[in-house]
Specification:
Elements: H1 25-28, H2 37-49, E1 55-56, H3 60-67, H4 71-83, E2 87-90, E3 93-96, H5 107-117
Antiparallel strand pairs: 1-3, 2-3
Helix pairs in contact: 2-4
């Protein structure tokens, strides 16, 4: 297998002093396939805003403003991410959880996927 060299070697990214990362299994494990745009945006926001333990305490208002989401959209995204075991939420704290072995499907996600197929 070929290993490509960086296109711009002087700008190879590294983990900054502030901490965040995205587990590449979010893509390779097909987790993104089960999320809508709002859920993806919220997940990536929380990953970026969290500390080493995945904890974040941004208010719903600040998150909604940053993502251009209405409160009802934000609450729906929170509910789905919780059901899929990607985050935990206990007001005012969020925790980004370790990814499950495979996506945890729920009725809401299955219904959404069935609607896509039509």
């Amino acid at each position: 297998m070929r290993h490509p060299h960086p296109i711009v070697p002087s700008k190879v990214r590294s983990l900054p002093g502030s901490f965040s990362w995205i587990d590449r299994r979010i893509l390779t494990g097909h987790f993104l396939h089960y999320l809508n745009r709002e859920e993806i945006a919220l997940y990536f926001f929380l990953v970026t805003a969290s500390d080493r333990q995945g904890m974040s305490f941004y208010s719903l208002g600040k998150i909604g403003h940053a993502l251009g989401m209405k409160e009802v959209e934000l609450r729906s995204a929170i509910a789905t991410l919780r059901e899929l075991e990607l985050i935990a939420f206990a007001y005012p704290f969020f925790q980004v959880l370790a990814l499950p072995e495979r996506p945890v499907l729920n009725k809401k996600v299955i219904k959404r996927l069935c609607q896509k197929e039509v």
